[in-house]
């Protein structure tokens, strides 16, 4: 179990709830979920990010894309791990995301084990 706080952003409610349920297996801290990308962006740009250990964010969302959320996160908390969640892992997405500082990717649909493995590695790496 990891005592940390995570932000999860996805406009698909089913995916959002699934990720939250999976994370509850290993996270003792808070899991902040957002289905509205604009609200999520506001949260990422606020002072609330001080205690956040990881952001998991969908790439393609209405209003604000995952790339915009990533860019905002890098301005407010550059060292925070960012896991891009996408159904379309194109070469251009990977290049653009890496340029902006995405830490890793996971492609939808994903297996529970794959998500847990990536999240655990990102949290451990961030803790040094």
From TrEMBL:
GO biological process: phosphorelay signal transduction system
One Pfam family recorded for the sequence: Response_reg
Domain Response regulatory residue range list: 5-123
UniProt keyword annotations, A-Z: Phosphoprotein
Record PTM 4-aspartylphosphate, positions in chain: 58
InterPro entries registered for this protein in UniProt: Bact_response_regulator, CheY-like_superfamily, Sig_transdc_resp-reg_receiver
PANTHER family: CHEY SUBFAMILY, STRESS RESPONSE REGULATOR PROTEIN 1
Name the UniProt record assigns to this protein: Response regulatory domain-containing protein
